[in-house]
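Check out one such.
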Amino acid sequence: MVFLKSVAAVLVLAAFAGAAHAQLADKKVLTLQAAKKIAAAAETEAKKQHARVVIAVVDDGGNLILLERLDDTQVASVEVGIGKARTAAIFRRPSKEFEDQIRGGRIAALALPGATPLQGGVPIIFEGKVIGAIGVSGETPSQDEELAKVGAGVIK
């Protein structure tokens, strides 16, 4: 009888374990190696354009993975670049969309927690999912975004 109860308990636990596993999703994540490739592409393009920028790469939760500040880039761009990347990651869209909303009169966008409503943050998308983002700061808004797009384009 004890043996049968033990077998029954094992079967119940196995059923629960299978059900719990079925509830978990496989998730692609941005690795340090991938972040380095993304930043390198943006840096190469920035140097071609003689741009002095900060390049920030974050994971899908907006946590910093990699930061590069090219020589002679203003220090203020460090936090701005991180903010742009974080915005693109956590809101799953380019940071420019928030700048456009504010420019269009929707000043309520300024109250969004964690948002840096400045052009230059671009989500990094793999297999249709945002796995991180890149933020670039230091030059004109359109140049920052162009450089971020170059970096984000490395991931296919």
Q: What stands out?
A: The chain has a mean pLDDT of 91. Strands lie at 54-59, 64-69, 121-126, 129-137. The chain has five helices and four strands. The radius of gyration is 21 Å.
